[in-house]
Structures are given as C-alpha cells and as structure tokens.
Write the structure tokens for this entry.
Amino acid sequence: MAKLAFLNAGILIVDDELANVRLLEKILQNAGYSNVFSTTNPHEVFPLFVERQPDLILLDLMMPEMNGFEVMERLSYLIPGETFLPILILTANVTSEAKNSALAGGATDFLTKPLDQTEVLLRIANLLATRLLHRTMEERVRERTAQVAQSQMEILQRLARAGEFRDDDTGKHTQRVGHTSVLLAQQLGLSPEQSEFIRQAAPLHDIGKIGISDLILLKPGKLTDAEFTIIKTHAEIGASLLAGGDSALLQTAEHIAGTHHEKWDGSGYPNRLKGEEIPIEGRIVAIVDVFDALTHERPYKKAWSIEEALVELRQQSGRHFDPQVVEAFLKLPHEELI
C-alpha cells in the first residue's frame, strides 16, 4: 500500500532545459512513478500547482525570466502553513552560497548536476516518505478535530434541548430557529462557515432560561413588570454560561445568547446595544426568534398568521430589527419555516 502511494505521488518537474526534463521523466517512469508532469516555463508552475496539487517538486535554480528562488517565494503563498510540500533543487550551481540560499528559501533538499540516477531516486523516495507521513498525520489531526467538533455540537444540541424543554416540551422551537437562522445567514451572503456556526449555535439563544423560575417562565397570563425584569436576565445568564469558549462555535453561541434581545434602535436588553454594535448573528436570531414566537402558540398567546407576523416585522424594521436583515428575511419561503 505504501509503495503504491509512492508510485502514485504527483511529481512536478520544473526546468527550462527540455533535455533535463526528459531525462528526469525517463528516470521516474522507469522506476514506476505514474503521475509525473513537467514544464519548461516557470510561470506555468503556479496554475499547475493549483490544478494538480503535487506531492513533490523537482526545481531547477537557474532559469530565465524567473529563477528557482522566485518560484519558491511565490509558491510559499500557495502552500498552506501546516502543509509539508518537499522541494528538491536540481542545479548545476555547486556553490555553498546557492545551496544555503535555496535551503533558506524553502527547499527541502539539494542535488547538483550532472545527476546520479540512483541518488536522485533515493532522495525522491526519502522526501515522498516524509510527505506521506505528514499527510497521514494531517489526516489524523483533521479526523480528530472533526470528532471533537462533532462531540461539541452534540453537547450543544443536548444543552439547547434541555433549555427548550423548560417552556416547549417538543423542543421544536430550537430546531426551527436553527434552521431558519442558517437560511437567513445564507440569504445575507455570510460565508458557509459562519452560516454553519449560526445554525449550530442559534438553538442555544434561550439557554439562559435554565436560570429562570418555572413560576415565571410557565405563567399562563401576562407577566408583571417585576417578573418581566427577571425574564430579561436570561440573556445575561445564557451569555455567562457560554462565555470563555475558545472555539468560534462557542463564541457565536455566546454572542447569540447575549444579544438576540438587543434592538436596532438601542432600546433592547441587556446592554442597550445599537445598530451594528449588535453582532450580525444576534441580529439574525432576533428576527427569527420573534417570527417563530409570533407564528406559534404560547401559554400566554395564540399563534399569529404568517401575514400578520410579516406585517409586524416590516413595522419593526429600523426599530427592533436591522432593516437589511428584515429585507433578507422577507425573501425566505415563510410557509416552510413554521
């Protein structure tokens, strides 16, 4: 399996002398390498790199228009920082200055021409072995990171359900808020990553209700001013519960829990934030939460029709809600959101 991975490895040859390219191609093909490609024009290295994603680059130093040092410098902007991509310099320049400059400039190994076929193949095999090891380690790190992210997401989902069962024993409200929030984030043009964080974090918007007494939370009638003051503390409680997280997901959840009751005109709570002082995720969940609350029955109210709820959202544009977010929300398929 390891030998097969070696022989399938992508190897890019860059040399302005066609004879040198053909010699290296023959050496590699005779050794069984099947994914070898080349160019005599250093300017073609970069589109080739992006398209073919080589595992090893065999690079000449002395080339017209763009030398090997310049090629390596430009490649450094294309290679992710955590990725190990070996570059083997093959050059007729035998000076120690050239060797040291190449190694300092990003080269992994250095061979001088005329080339010894056996040494070339041994160096290539060693570099590919290291490349394969790095790729295996990177894959394991990605798998482990994905497992941690999945576990974190599951814990947050269960936490959201626990909070929602306090005043919605079906748990459907949190699911709807998460689903609608990601649609709205996408409508607003947020990145796929940020939209996904919002989808996962939005169901935690009311997690602070864990700290509110059932006598107030489940009261069927209208709340007194004192009771409503207590209810409003759930935003601060939720943000406090989620505070201090290192991950972007937890930070998004903290922002949503703490700001989804802030208002565009600055009259909301808990911190009377105004306009774009409110994080975009908080502005998104604010309108989604209100729409869902209006269009579903609660202990203290009957469900509104979609048309009635949309009229209310329009009226609150520029007051309760960000006008841009309202316009984006109005474009969503509302019948599918309830």
Remarks:
- The two ends are 52 Å apart (CA to CA).
